[in-house]
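Colleagues,

Please find the record for the two-part complex below.
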Amino acid sequence: MESIETLNLPEKGTKLNLEQAMFLALSEASKGASFVSPNPMVGAVLLDQHGGFISSGYHQFYGGAHAEVNALKGLRDEDLTGGHLIVTLEPCAHDGKTPSCARAIAKLPLHKVTYGIIDPNPLVAGQGVKIMSDAGIIAEQFSSNNKEIAAQIRIQLEEVCEAFLWNFRHKKVFVALKMASSLDGQVALKSGESQWITGPESREYVHFLRSCYDAVLVGKGTISFDNPSLNIRHPNIDKKNKVIVIDTEAELLNTCSELNLFHSHESQNIFWCIAEDFKSEIELKNPNSKLGPNIIYVKTNISGHLDLENLLEQIYELGIRSVMIEGGALTASSFIVSELVNRIYVFQAPIILGAGGAKSWTESVRIEKMKDKIQIQNPRYKTFGNDFMITGTFQKNRLETKNTNNQG
Amino acid sequence: MESIETLNLPEKGTKLNLEQAMFLALSEASKGASFVSPNPMVGAVLLDQHGGFISSGYHQFYGGAHAEVNALKGLRDEDLTGGHLIVTLEPCAHDGKTPSCARAIAKLPLHKVTYGIIDPNPLVAGQGVKIMSDAGIIAEQFSSNNKEIAAQIRIQLEEVCEAFLWNFRHKKVFVALKMASSLDGQVALKSGESQWITGPESREYVHFLRSCYDAVLVGKGTISFDNPSLNIRHPNIDKKNKVIVIDTEAELLNTCSELNLFHSHESQNIFWCIAEDFKSEIELKNPNSKLGPNIIYVKTNISGHLDLENLLEQIYELGIRSVMIEGGALTASSFIVSELVNRIYVFQAPIILGAGGAKSWTESVRIEKMKDKIQIQNPRYKTFGNDFMITGTFQKNRLETKNTNNQG
């Protein structure tokens, strides 16, 4: 969603071409970032028969009205006659939390609907299009003769609902990794000290990012060193998130009451990941208490580390569809090495901490040949005060997404 | 100079306020980047009595006409009457390679001259202003009621001729450090492999940067691993640079004929830095040959490493006023630890190389407390293809510059 430029709504009647309208729909979609999960962010723009802007809308919160409905709200048939609806995702075919958008649209005197990507759910994919076509509305997937712009738009259409697409296509948790490093890639001093590497503008944006994912995930070291709250503290966002802690040997489990985490979250929103081997021991000591976190017993691999894929499978089963890893160095490295990261956010401060005595976020990542380097796809850059942020997707995941897309 | 935005020249007669005119003068100044050393980059803008743009000029090459002269060229007295000349640096008072600008201006029917910074040479500082004032021209240093813009302009006025100011104020070589790293701060794999971390757009820009400094400086490892040419290969720049190699124990000295360096540079432009302790040995083996490089015998410190300050003193004596360090990791680290770097350029590619098995450019930099972190001042960001570049100055030098400035 980082690639989406926020655009001002044009004056009514302003002529927009298809590309401009789709960029505007993307901008609208991105406004839903904090509240739609596990639904996708979707945006819609309505043009009149001459290509003049009429209205726009977006999916605002989970279970709320869909983007198309918000765009069409309050308009009369005479406003809609011959109109062209541009929407980032295929209008839904089925009645779910809200009635089917495609069926609602089919009743309207619109001339055309252009949608960005087809619904990834194989059971309904294309059904929305069919319903509208059967009603005599031209329903087309977005395309453009301007290849460069078309490629940009296609990437953004995927990115704006990437967690949703990943969930549907792979039945897996979407994993984002957020790091705050120095210019030389260090995330903490040897002592563990890391507050603060980045400035207040970056840190406020991280609170926004927390709101875009179902849960924050951290390792034991981050909890014991920083004792963070890990809740969302942002002037414009009122939302409760979940927290996942990796504490393989359950070392911190009996210190819960002292952790800030437990004062800023209800314990049912905290998930404690412990090695399976400790199960009987823990169950004896900590009978399921209302004051304790949810405990997840995770399989371990030969070297005694948690099997992170198993961890993600279990939290997916618990309804958590996206997580943002927030450290520390070891946790970040482990997820990278396990090839489980979908998107990365690296905030870099213009400081040097020195690799000679600090900790890197890739300390356990080893690359032997330049051809094996890990490539970040579609990188975007943004500045926050004196810091900058780079975000992009990991090659492996990007390739998988592309392959799946080609089948669509 | 990285902070200077390149502006198009306005139409003649376009009204410019003082801030706009100074930004334009800065943009003009920056056009001299590749060819003015050891002179400063200077730009000038001429406005008519109503504030309308007449002309502009910049110092194009060492020994060539000054910015003011280029701005005034071909204009008649009637064009100049009541005019306002805006120039980034105080017009020179003395006759040097070219006649005194201040005296030339004193003869013109101009109303006012606004200059950015005073000439740093204490013997002439303020003399240019006096010559013009005595002739009845208002000569004022730039100031603005818009504090934010004024601060920006003042930083840019220093930055556009920072090497020149540093040379004059401290009688020292201006040192830039250029690094090409992965997103996690690695500059080479364990094997030494580093080609290519960044993309072609970044690499072309590095050739431009080479042209902005008198010499490139590298360590022995970079020479033996990459065998680089280290010359300037840029579509728009035809310039010969100098090369400085640090080879403490003279290990590569007898392999010179095999090095690409010696095919792309005349040997008089190559400087080989060797520990003083090897002097007698080398002088026996390599009697001064026209085919060999210039040899610089550098003092060593207690741990047997070259005293980099002594190295820089010696190359200053040889007329080299600015260098850009281009690697490797050890050389970069050594200059940072010695607090000898004035400006840094870090090009980062959106790739991960893994701190677990690669080399960081700060491998010998150790910071124990967050308060001792090395702060990059006035950071600017630029993207090159998929890479981005951050540049800024080092705190220590920035503070020294500020102090000196306050005395001016």
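Residues 397-408 of chain A have pLDDT under 50 and may be disordered.

Comments are welcome before we finalize the supplementary table.
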